[in-house]
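Thread: Newbie trying to understand structure tokens

Hi all, I'm a second-year student working on a class project, and my supervisor (Dr. K.) asked me to get a predicted structure for one chain before our next meeting. I've only ever worked with sequences, so writing a 3D structure as a token string is new to me. If someone could post the tokens and maybe explain what I'm looking at, I'd be very grateful. Here's the chain:
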Amino acid sequence: RVSRRLKQKANQSTRINQRANPCHTPHSLASTRWVVAGIKDKGYQFESSVDKVLSLAKAAEMDEKKKNETPEQPEELKKLLDKHIIGQDDAKKAVSVAYRNRWRYKKVPEHVRKKIIPKNILMSGPTGVGKTEVARSLADLSNAPFLRVEATKYTEVGFRGEDVESMINQLVKVGIKLEEKKAARRFLPNFESVNELLLDQIFGYHQDDPVYQLNRQSIRSILDELDDVDLRHEQGDTLKLKDLRKKEMSGILERSQKSLSQEVIENAIKTVEEEGIIFIDEIDKLCKDNIYQGSASDEGVQRDLLPIIEGTDVSTEYGQVNTTKILFITSGAFHTCKPSDLTSELLGRLPIRVSLDPLSEEDLYRILTETEVNLILQNRALLNTEGIDLRFTDEALKEIAKTSYEVNSNIEDIGARRLITVMERVLEPYSYNATEYSGKLVIVDKEDIRKRLEKLFSQENFKQDIL
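---
Reply by user tm_fold:
Sure, no problem. This is what the structure looks like when written as tokens:
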């Protein structure tokens, strides 16, 4: 027993010496696990290394910059949404006001704040007119936890399937990813002390020596450029500067893992409760008079949604989450039913009603030309990777919009998604034979559009005759 205890002490002493002398033993960069105390099995486990933390911090800086550039006044936010969505002014006004209300909520007195609840939104309109894009753009601009779910994936409690409370657990996971980036950015200053430690290990510490201070300052200014420089320890071991830096950073991160994990979870739940947005699509499929109704529990799903939208405490694998302040945006095409076919209790919890209009030919043309990252820019960027300089004449773009509108009117209206179908048919020869057009300027005009879509028209006319 004495021998065993002496060996344990010797091993412990060796580990202490190695930590005190990082140059002596090369460091193995193992992943650091952030684990919340008291949570097992399904607890929060964030696998992270120093590189991961640095990457998250950089992403958080970009998110913060985007959020700072987002206007807060509703009219200014609507103008920003205009860059992503054509038309649908009522829907953009509704979500802009909902976003501004988040700021207003934080400014009112405490006794009033307790009574204020989000003005949840019900959007109705044909498929492909921008319902999902309105909600997604709002969440992207505000950098808030955002979750899009399909109403048809849930079943009533007691039926086989996923119950509606699971959406809150999914929203917390989204919040965790956002908070990981923020926590990494807040933790970043802790890494700044590493450079001073490296200088101490290289030069020693001589505060009163002016020559030493001058050399130290010179090296500090170019330290980031010396990552591949080899450092030799007095005992003969060699280690690159970047590896030594990463070793010290890993030690700092490892010592802080418990506090970081708790911070991420707590902030994620708080952010979800105060700023979370859940977009529930296909809500019309839960109507009792909907011909597409495929489950006997659909009306029960509406009842299960009531307490969550109204506000209740939901148990997640990360802790209790109160849903009172979460903004719910629901949408549906309502082709075979109408919003009033939803239960009156659910409608009462969706006080803001917005109807989105079908897209006109002019709307489709504007989607191709005015949105910030439109289909034309996307396809030009894709083919440019093959060395193809793709251009469209204005008449060609109008022809694409006209064709898309006619197909939507005569066959099936799928909104702006029809532009993707038509565009793929037009660009198929250039995408398939990319090597043949590499290094060339390709100009697509009106005649090219008609030639490519001639077969499509004949097929659609045939379908009309059969029907």
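A couple of things are worth pointing out once you decode it. The radius of gyration is 30 Å. Confidence is low (pLDDT under 50) at residues 1-42. Feel free to ask follow-ups in this thread.
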